[in-house]
């Protein structure tokens, strides 16, 4: 039987630190909601706006798959593996924290804000050697179809690799268009996050920054009522 959990945009956790305006789809930092700890293996989906020249100082992570998408601006990344690189719009970064890594993240620009989405997914293998990857994805390749951004490390699928049986897709679905996604396993659920636009997911309307977690179904259908930029995260519900 299909189950759906709705996360309207205005029900997300919110913290405005001046230099950081953050919205949390799941419990994070000072925001705690026992009904919103995670969706299957999806632990964090943060929607952050960081002020000019500001950012997160060096801090540690371990045993987590961390995926960062920049929506606007540029994010400067530096880590203990020796990477120093800016992440730009349409680029995706993955970092398998594994046995442990330190990194910092700053707004690369001093004249404009940066808006990023950061996703944390529980790994299916702990204490792996930390790894990093980054890639530019052509926006034209997601017009009215699903563009695979992230996929399991043990598959030959496209996308950047993580240590979990999870897939992340993005689509620019123009008004009036419909696409379907068939899940890889009956154990998986799909978390649909509307970056911008107005679309229905299995008949449920979602607008800008609304989200829905769907499980217990083999197929999910997206219909765009307006031009929509949509992120889909397929994750194991038991892991």
Could you provide a short overview of the structure?
By secondary structure, the protein is mostly beta strands. It contains no helices and 22 strands.
Task: Break the fold down into its secondary structure elements and pairings.
Layout: E1 3-7, E2 13-16, E3 20-24, E4 42-50, E5 55-61, E6 65-72, E7 75-79, E8 84-87, E9 91-96, E10 101-107, E11 114-121, E12 131-136, E13 147-152, E14 160-162, E15 167-173, E16 178-182, E17 188-196, E18 198-201, E19 204-207, E20 211-215, E21 219-224, E22 228-236
Parallel strand pairs: 13-14
Antiparallel strand pairs: 1-20, 2-3, 3-4, 4-11, 5-10, 6-9, 6-11, 7-8, 7-10, 9-12, 13-15, 15-22, 16-21, 17-20, 17-22, 18-19, 18-21
Question: What would your notes on this structure say?
Answer:
The protein has strands at residues 3-7, 13-16, 20-24, 42-50, 55-61, 65-72, 75-79, 84-87, 91-96, 101-107, 114-121, 131-136, 147-152, 160-162, 167-173, 178-182, 188-196, 198-201, 204-207, 211-215, 219-224, 228-236. The chain has 239 residues and is mainly beta. It has 2 domains: 13-136, Jelly Rolls; 139-236, Sandwich (Jelly Rolls), CATH 2.60.120. The strands form 4 sheets. Strands 1-20-17-22-15-13-14 form a 7-stranded mixed sheet, with no helix packed on it. Strand 2 and strand 3 (20-24) form a beta hairpin. The mean pLDDT is 96.
